[in-house]
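Our platform keeps sequence and structure together, in a single record for each protein. Nothing more is needed to write down the fold, since each code stands for a local backbone conformation. An entry from our holdings is shown next, in its original layout:
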Amino acid sequence: MKEPRMDTFDELFVRNGFDTPSWSGVGVGWYSLLDRLLLDLRLLDVNDKITLEQVKEKYGGLRFYWSPARYAPRGNELWLVGELKDNALYHAVSDRIREAETESERTCELCGEPGTLSSKGGWFRTVCPNEPGYTPLNDTQKEP
């Protein structure tokens, strides 16, 4: 079992220059994954250009909801509505978030070890084989 990170959820965001989104939280096993994602976003220099809306676990995977900043700097043409989805930076942010979400689907949310989508009492979670009470799902069970 990996040693859990000692950071709090909020510290991950603060250290990388973001406000902690409301109604957010994930297990400590994903903290390293989330920290790397936030660092990459900071290196893309988007802290003042995007708003992190929510970060959570859903159906066993990381969900990272964001939007263009509500108050982008004056004269910033980067986030004009209509041009947004054609923008290279928008795609870089989207792609990096998608990579982190995909990585979460094979990382135990509780400890950070390699994991698989499993269920316990009807709830889905990506966990390693060491987590008690979870039943791994086979590929046909993973499809909605």
